[in-house]
Amino acid sequence: MCRKIFQIIFLIVIFCTTTSFTQQRHIPTVFIDYPYIDLNYIKEQIPIVNYVRDQKEADIHVLFTSQKTAAGGTYFTIYFIGQNNFTNVKDTVKYLTNQNDTEDISRKKMIKALELGFFEYLVKSGLSDKINISYTEPQKKVNQKDDWDYWLFRTSLNGNFNGQANQKAMYLNGSFFADRTTEDSKFNINVSSSYNENRYIYNSGTETTEILNLSRAQSFSTYIVKSIDSNWSWGIWGGIVSSTYANINISAYVAPGIEFNIFPYSVSNERQFRIDYQVKHIYNKYIQETILFKKEEDLWSNSLNLTLSLIRPWGNMSINASGSNYLNDFNLFDLGVSSSVSMELYNGLSVNVNVGYSKIQDQISLPLASETLENLLTQNVQIQTNFSYWGGFGISYSFGSIYNNVVNPRFGGG
Question: Which tens digits make up the pLDDT trace of 91-101?
């Protein structure tokens, strides 16, 4: 009798152990949350997991965020968020791509970062026997000297032209950009010039009418921004602008400002709530006399800007509210609000919305003679308005197979 009881207990133990081992060897499902990803390449390089197209079905939600570096590269932060059996498992991996990296180099850096992030999940899934670990010999740290002292320069010249029997157009633009960014400061210089010409020819049969639309603009701007601590920064901006569209012969300005980020700058990849305040002194000289009967004037203005930005597993959201006014006349103001939201709602259903509205009461540079039909149609100069608005939306729904790791590159399918 005791022997039979022992045999039964032994069989139960073997069954439970086998069942437990089988349950532990679970291939995790992965949802990659980044719109600009080469998912086929990831499937080929990391086939040990199952990739799904629905966030709710995933054991691992992989969320990418990115920020541009001063040298033109991209600093990526990948958040690995465990779900289902991995609810308490989270990890973060960061990597950097340089401006001169080829697509292949950038993809290999991404794969290495993903492999590092998947490691703990694979071990907890009982797949450690499928993992090979290798090390490279650590290099001695060398304090490499930057011959350019963090300076980045960029210059460009571009243009285009097109035409037909009744219309001709030409556009030219040149610019120069210099930037120096370190951990605690930013310094920037930007110079640009543009020329835009549009010619319209209308032949009624008895007479020919030609309308010429010319606009030119030149600008020089610079700023310096310095950090105070993990939440505060200050800066000063300045520049000179000329624009036929805005009826500006010359406009020179200088504007000190201060910024407070409720969240530390160190978590700006996840969330930001910035409050910016600026005071600006402006000297304007106009091409034509303005609707306020001015040929030139000195002005003071101030502005307040609030920006909330969040990146979360369910999507991302940003809200911006801004206001500015001229201190010599508080009736001259501009108020604006805008928002964008992108959300994954439920099982393949996603939606994105962006809206904005501005109340405009500060068009002080409008020329007296701007309200003509020709100007309205050609947009040759600014036209008076007291508001502007914009918006857009998109919705998508995917259904069908969610477990398909097959890559088929035929006829460009890769």
Answer: 999 998 887 78
Half-sphere exposure (Cβ direction) of 187: Cα atoms closer than 13 Å: 7
The 3-class SS string of 226-288 reads EECCCCEEEEEEEEEEEECCCCEEEEEEEEEEEEEECCCHHHCCCEEEEEEEEEEEEEEEECC
Residue 138 in any domain: the answer is no
Do 173 and 69 have their domain in common? no
Answer with the one of 334, 358, 375 that is the final residue of a domain: 334
Integer Cα distance of 59 and 84 in angstroms: 6
Assigned domain for 352 exists: no
Of 190-194, 260-264, 362-366, the poorest mean pLDDT is in 362-366
Q: Which CATH number is 80's domain given?
A: 3.30.160
Task: Tell me if 381 is assigned to some domain.
Answer: no
**Strands 349-360 and 387-397: what pairing?**
antiparallel
Hey, what are 178's tokens?
Answer: 């210099």
Provide the β-strand partners of residue 95.
76
253 and 175 assigned to the same domain: yes
For residues 44 and 64, what is the distance between their CA atoms, to the nearest angstrom?
19
In the block, which residue shows the tokens 């951990």? 183
> In terms of domains, do 76 and 192 share one?
no
Cβ proximity of 323 and 291 under 8 Å: no
Q: Which of 101, 131, 161 is the last residue of a domain?
A: 131
**Domain containing 111: what range?**
26-131
CA distances from 188 to 10, 206, 236, 249 (A): 75, 56, 11, 24
In this predicted model, what pLDDT tens digit does every residue of 100-117 receive, in sequence order?
787 888 888 999 999 999
Residue 326: inside a domain: yes
The residues, ordered by sequence, that sit 6+ positions from 137 with a Cβ below 8 Å of its Cβ are: none
Diameter over CA atoms, the chain: 119
Q: Are residues 183 and 41 in the same domain?
A: no
In the numeric block, which tokens belong to residue 1? 């009798």
pTM, two decimals, is 0.67
Question: CB within 8 A of 115, min separation 6: which ones?
Answer: 46
Tally of domains in the chain: 2
User: What CA–CA distance (Å, rounded) separates 309 from 85?
Assistant: 30
